[in-house]
Amino acid sequence: PQDISVVGFDDLPAASMMSPRLSTVRVDCRAIGAQAIALIQRRLADPYAGVVQAECGVSAVPGGTIAQFAES
């Protein structure tokens, strides 16, 4: 972490098996699924519905692979 920072995506189980533990972000898969169902229902109700930008939250899962930016 002193020379380069590495961040994984989706908090895969392998992240916890690394040494140091891989810093990663966890995606809210339940929210993605709920949005996908709502978008399918919307499209079925209106085949000409406009494009929608879907967003979902992520949360940081700390590990030992990110350099510290400033002294505490």
Give the topology:
Elements: E1 7-9, E2 23-27, H1 29-45, E3 58-61
Describe this structure in words.
This protein is α+β, with helices and mostly antiparallel strands and 72 residues long. It is 24% helix and 17% strand. It contains 1 helix and 3 strands; from the N terminus they run ββαβ. The chain has one helix at residues 29-45, and strands at 7-9, 23-27, 58-61. The chain has a 3-stranded mixed beta sheet, with no helix packed on it. The chain is elongated and about 55 Å long. The relative contact order is 0.30. The mean pLDDT is 88.
Tell me the strand percentage band: 15-25%
The arrangement of helices and strands along the chain is EEHE
Which structural class should the secondary elements be placed in? Answer: alpha+beta
Radius of gyration: 18 Å
Strand order of the largest sheet: 1-2-3
Mean pLDDT: 88
Terminal CA distance: 17 Å
Unreliable stretches (pLDDT < 50, length at least 5) are: none
Biggest sheet architecture:
3 strands, mixed
What's the overall geometry?
elongated
Assign a percent range to the helix content: 10-25%
The total strand number stands at 3
Q: So how many helices?
A: 1
